[in-house]
Specification:
heterodimer; A: mainly alpha; 12 helices; flat; B: 10 helices
């Protein structure tokens, strides 16, 4: 075995963490001094990382078919089941269908409320953990810990606030029942974003602003935002709004 | 009855970085696939395109997370939506659908982050790497994957393959890794991008 092969073998053992501590120290010293040796080690490391990437791709491929089957099955079984139930029920109640529909309409009209619609659609926003020591980082950490009063206190000390800080504060006001303040914060996010250049938390702010208006009994103001989200299939929250929800919302607007 | 694992954003990032990767991948399919598929299908893509793009997006997202390049500036849903969209835009560009791409770009540019072009270069590099690894023989791929992805010991690999001794397996693994290194470094430009794309915080 020539010297080059010996070096490669030692580098691979180092890569695999198979060298003794003494040999590790010796090799690391050589790596600092020998540029070509260091280059070869980096290339081997790159090859190892490439294998791990390939493994990840294979892993995803192996799960893909099963997940497609699961998702397609869920999609396929939900529709026929729904159709069967609807047909059977409609046969059974054919004679009284009109009465039932009218009854349902009246019931929905009487029982629907902004609060009920809000509860059906509201889920607190989740952030990933942030460990930054900036104002935003502190707000985010307090929010992740669900310490909403602390978020609000920190936010109210800021002289200037950006989109993310307003968004976090809006979420906290919403969670603590200060809906008017939540509205102000989410509206701030939208006004701070410049059309065509920045859109930080744009979709999120639109959705939560609409929910805040709803909770604050300002249905007519909530409606345009919900309509915008419902009509835009590229909107992040498009899948949250069903035709049933929009129907109930229209009923609320009509109810006044 | 089997229950599906649910994760918050931070829990999902932790799962991706640990051994719960299969559960994390399944969760991402259940949570995001239908939404991302709708985008591709509504923008000149087929169901197959959507599946390919989603898989590419997963590889890229998990690699970015594991190398701490995704720092949670936005929610995971926002980020993967943007990543998926940009992979599809890039694919449309390669297919020469310039007009369609321009329309989608106009309607979605507000979500692009400044380093998206860098991400796209990384994703393209990853695709080239994956095709280069396919040039290795089946035995090489099996040994390298078993050792570097599945974390099996040489002894465990010996039990699953037709080799005589652990030393033979070890020699074969060294030879295969060296062969892969040579394949990757044969293209200096690819190697340069690859080192950046695959850096795992060493």
């Amino acid at each position: 075995m020539d010297n080059s092969n010996t070096n490669t073998d030692i580098l691979i053992q180092y890569l695999d963490k198979e060298l003794s501590p003494e040999k590790v120290l010796q090799l690391e010293q050589e790596l600092r001094q020998n540029v070509s040796l260091k280059q070869e080690f980096e290339n081997l490391l790159m090859a190892k990382n490439a294998v791990q990437l390939y493994g990840l791709q294979q892993n995803i491929r192996s799960l893909h078919t099963g997940m497609m089957d699961e998702l397609n099955l869920a999609h396929a079984t939900s529709k026929p089941a729904l159709v069967r139930i609807l047909v059977r029920r409609s046969m059974q109640v054919a004679a009284g269908l009109l009465v039932v529909l009218i009854g349902l309409g009246v019931y929905q009209y009487l029982t629907i409320s902004p609060d009920k619609l809000f509860r059906e659609n509201y889920q607190p926003y989740q952030f990933s953990v942030s460990r930054s020591a900036t104002n935003t980082g502190i707000l985010e950490e307090e929010y992740v810990e669900k310490n909403f009063p602390a978020v609000i206190k920190t936010f109210e000390t800021l002289s200037v606030s950006d989109q993310k800080q307003n968004f976090i504060a809006g979420q906290s006001y919403l969670a603590t029942g200060a809906y008017a303040k939540a509205i102000t914060c989410f509206a701030n996010v939208l006004s701070l974003n410049k059309p065509g250049t920045s859109s930080i938390f744009q979709d999120d702010a639109q959705y939560y602003l609409a929910l805040s208006y709803l909770k604050n009994n300002q249905v007519a103001l909530a409606y345009p935002y919900f309509e915008l989200i419902y009509n835009n299939s590229n909107h992040l929250y498009n899948d949250k709004l069903t035709s049933g929800f929009m129907r109930k919302l229209k009923l609320l607007v009509w109810k006044g | 009855m089997q229950t599906n694992q649910m994760y918050s954003d931070s829990e999902l990032l932790t799962a991706i970085k640990t051994t719960q990767i299969d559960d994390a991948i399944k969760f991402m399919y259940r949570e995001y696939y239908m939404l991302l598929k709708t985008f591709v299908c509504k923008n000149s893509g087929t169901e197959e395109d959507a599946q390919d793009v989603f898989q590419e997006m997963l590889v890229a997202f998990i690699n970015l997370t594991r190398s701490d390049k995704f720092r949670g500036e936005s929610s995971i849903k926002t980020f993967v939506f943007s990543l998926n969209r940009n992979i599809w835009l890039n694919e449309l560009k390669k297919r020469g659908r310039a007009e369609k791409r321009a329309n989608i770009f106009e309607s979605s540019k507000e979500l692009l982050t400044p380093d998206v072009s860098e991400l796209i270069v990384q994703i393209e590099t990853q695709k080239q790497v994956l095709s280069i690894i396919e040039e290795l023989g089946a035995a090489c791929k099996k040994i390298l994957l078993a050792f570097y992805y599945d974390d099996l010991s040489i002894k465990e690999i010996l039990a699953t393959m037709d080799y005589e001794t652990e030393q033979v397996v070890r020699n074969k693994k060294h030879k295969c890794l060296k062969q892969l290194e040579q394949l990757l470094t044969a293209n200096p430009n690819l190697a340069k991008h690859l080192k950046i794309a695959l850096r795992h915080g060493q």
